[in-house]
Design a protein that fits this description.
The chain is mainly alpha-helical. The protein is 67% helix and 0% strand.
């Protein structure tokens, strides 16, 4: 699925507890990249905001590109956790999982004005050899393939076509949210997605 910005890393509770420098740098970088872009934030700003210095940053991450890759890998891991939650909440019911994907997608599209971090990275980091390109491509391919499998398990006669239609609808909704705001077409994402699902699963269970 497309990604939603995770919450900022917060210091563990308890007397004397605090994030390790590496985790603090990662959390700060993700927040700054999300708000200001991957090109718009330098290592000096990240180190300062994380309460550390460039030497410490480079000790944990060999370069800014390495830091970007780690941030994107973290997003991918969190997306996997979302899928696991769908499966745990609606065990053995792929149609319900598909409807849950729609609701979560709507939350992503409406709540986050900055859009998908993976897409933003793809737009900014255009060099073919940039290490983030492989992470982005692998993530988006894996998420799309996962949606295909879910559509197939839900009984769609044309699982790939349904998955690709929903996928492009969500990607477009997130871009629309950035360009025309929360009251634009993205506000109707659930209605559109459910209508598409109904067309492919005319006898399937209704959306909750």
């Amino acid at each position: 699925m497309t990604t939603i910005t995770p919450p900022r890393l917060e210091a563990p509770s308890g007397p004397g507890a605090e994030l390790r420098p590496r985790d603090r740098i990662l959390g700060t970088a993700r927040d700054l990249f999300h708000r200001h872009g991957y090109r718009g934030v330098g290592v000096d700003a990240i180190a300062e905001a994380a309460g550390t210095n460039k030497m410490t940053l480079y000790r944990h991450f060999g370069s800014k590109d390495d830091l970007i890759v780690e941030c994107l890998n973290g997003l991918a891991e969190e997306a996997d956790a979302v899928w696991a939650r769908f499966e745990a909440t609606h065990s053995g019911d792929p149609a319900a999982q598909l409807h849950e994907w729609v609701r979560f997608g709507a939350e992503c599209a409406i709540s986050d004005a900055r859009g998908c971090d993976m897409v933003n990275a793809a737009v900014e980091l255009t060099e073919p050899g940039h290490p983030a390109r492989r992470v982005i491509e692998d993530f988006k391919t894996a998420q799309r393939d996962r949606l295909v499998r879910l559509c197939r398990a839900a009984g769609a006669t044309q699982a790939e076509l349904l998955a690709d239609t929903l996928w492009l609808l969500l990607e477009g909704a997130r871009v629309s949210r950035q360009s025309v705001g929360a009251e634009g077409p993205s506000a109707r994402f659930i209605r559109m997605a459910e209508a598409i699902i109904a067309a492919f699963l005319p006898r399937g269970p209704a959306s909750p």
